[in-house]
Amino acid sequence: MKKNQKTPRHSSTARRRCRQQKKYTALLLLLLLLGIPGAILLSNHVQAQAEGLPQEQTYKYYTSIKVTYGDTLWEIAEKYQTDEYEDIPSYIEEVKQINHLTSSQITDGMYLCIPYYTSEYKA
């Protein structure tokens, strides 16, 4: 090959197109790199909000029950406790506090005030 012979160059439009394609590729990669973590953070935020709030509004009410022979606070809690309470022991503590109980001892014929939640509004 001769030294004076030049290799064919790309036309200016081809170079412009190549530069534009590189810019679009870089922009797409940047959006992906920023978009994926952003979407994950947004998803976690929405999930955290959903877990912190009840699906529908609930109202707290109280009812009176008569203790029968063999009843325990644990069994009563299993029957009346709702999702608003963290666990059965925390529900039992509230029942004890409301009824001024110093122990978990309950007796036949005793009346207890029991809290519960419902979505039904009772005027």
Explain the layout of strands and helices.
Layout: H1 12-52, E1 59-66, H2 73-80, H3 88-98, E2 111-118
Antiparallel strand pairs: 1-2
Task: Describe the protein.
By secondary structure, the chain is an alpha+beta fold. It folds into two domains: 10-53; 59-118, LysM domain (Membrane-bound Lytic Murein Transglycosylase D, Chain A, Roll). Helix content is 49%, strand content 13%. The chain has three helices and two strands. It has helices at 12-52, 73-80, 88-98; strands at residues 59-66, 111-118. It has a two-stranded antiparallel sheet. Helix 2 packs across helix 3 (88-98). It is rod-shaped. The mean pLDDT is 83.
Structure characteristics:
single chain, alpha+beta, two-stranded antiparallel sheet, 2 strands, 2 domains, Membrane-bound Lytic Murein Transglycosylase D, Chain A, about 120 residues
Short description:
The chain is 49% helix and 13% strand. With 123 residues, it is α+β, with helices and mostly antiparallel strands. Helix 2 (73-80) packs across helix 3.
Number of domains: 2
Strand order, sheet with most strands: 1-2
- Taking the alpha carbons of the first and last residues, their distance comes to 99 Å
CATH third-tier fold name of the largest domain: Membrane-bound Lytic Murein Transglycosylase D, Chain A
Low-confidence stretches: none
* Biggest sheet features: 2 strands, antiparallel
User: What is the count of β-strands?
Assistant: 2
Order of helices and strands: HEHHE
